[in-house]
Design a protein that fits this description.
Oligomer: single chain
Structural class: mainly alpha
Radius of gyration: 31 Å
Length: 314
């Protein structure tokens, strides 16, 4: 018992006490975090019930890029020359599980603003004023960039990729029959990856703002970034064909270049070193300048000033 009490006292004094805030102790922080996470989970669950009710409609929306191409000039979908592609399921619960997957992902995407709001309310009391001015817009821009990546993939990248892959198989003489699980997984993975790709410029700008990298550093590693984009695309691409790898790798590298521009504009400024003081040379009137001589180091005994004692004179 004595050992347990001593351990609890050491844990409180050495670990928990330094973490406590003057305004709110650690336990209250944990309680607040639990409450906010509970709210976020409940909100996501409510949205999931609504999205699962419309899961069949959402799956039908996911099927649009398969046999249609979006025309920006007309702002409408135009059917392609592909034949009608039927969907099949290869397991008894495959169709139900795909509806659950689609409803869950859409619920998470739709409830993201509320989740970020709860995280912001938890973090903002511990931030300084200048940090609030930077973190707030950064969170809003990152959320908007993620949604923009999803929309860009749905309207442009996904139809182009699906049309190329299915038409290639049809021209090779194969009959297209797609598994609902394979198609939904392919489409959702494409949407998610492109949402993350659109975050690359903001991530590089944030790293430059924190002083971890700068624009010259990023420019020096351009060729490695180009190679790394294809390596990452090869890992993330749901199919092993090089066509889809190029569809992911090229936008990733383009956004790397955009991140270089953002790092150059919003990067952390390094203060310039002040020049050493100089003194004008005496004599001759030549006006030449020479550096000031360094002052000799003072011994430690000479720097020490003792406390005078009563009755002793210095």
């Amino acid at each position: 018992m004595a050992g347990l009490k001593s351990f609890q006292k050491w844990l409180q004094d050495s670990v928990l006490a330094p973490l406590e805030d003057k305004k709110m102790p650690v336990m209250e922080h944990l309680v607040e975090l639990q409450v906010r996470l509970t709210r976020a989970v409940i909100a996501t669950g409510v949205v999931f019930v609504a999205t699962f009710f419309y899961a069949d409609t959402l799956v039908q929306w996911l099927r649009i890029p398969l046999q249609n191409m979006f025309v920006p000039g007309k702002l409408q979908w135009v059917p392609t020359d592909l034949p009608v592609v039927p969907f099949v399921f290869l397991a008894p619960a495959e169709a139900l599980w795909q509806n659950v997957k689609v409803a869950g992902l859409f619920a998470l995407v739709l409830s993201t603003p509320y989740i970020l709001w709860e995280i912001w309310q938890f973090v903002v009391p511990g931030l300084h004023v200048q940090e609030r001015r930077f973190v707030g817009p950064f969170v809003l821009l990152s959320t908007a960039a993620f949604y923009a990546g999803i929309l860009f993939s749905f309207f442009f990248v996904l139809p182009f990729a699906l049309n190329f892959l299915v038409s290639y198989g049809v021209n090779a003489g194969f009959i297209p029959q797609l598994s609902i699980a394979q198609y939904v997984g392919f489409a959702l993975w494409f949407l998610l990856v492109f949402g993350l790709i659109f975050e690359v410029p903001l991530a590089l700008t944030l790293m430059a703002k924190l002083g971890w990298v700068d624009a010259p550093f990023l420019k020096r590693y351009r060729k490695w970034a180009f190679l790394g984009a294809f390596v990452v695309a090869a890992i993330l691409t749901p199919t092993p064909d090089p066509f889809n790898q190029c569809l992911m790798a090229l936008p990733m590298y383009v956004f790397y270049e955009v991140g270089i521009v953002g790092a150059g504009i919003f990067g952390k400024r390094v203060p310039a070193a002040s020049p050493a003081p100089v003194a004008r040379a005496s004599g001759g009137g030549t006006g030449m300048l020479k550096p000031m001589p360094a002052k000799p180091a003072v011994a430690a005994e000479e720097q020490y000033v003792g406390v005078p004692h009563a009755g002793r004179r210095s």
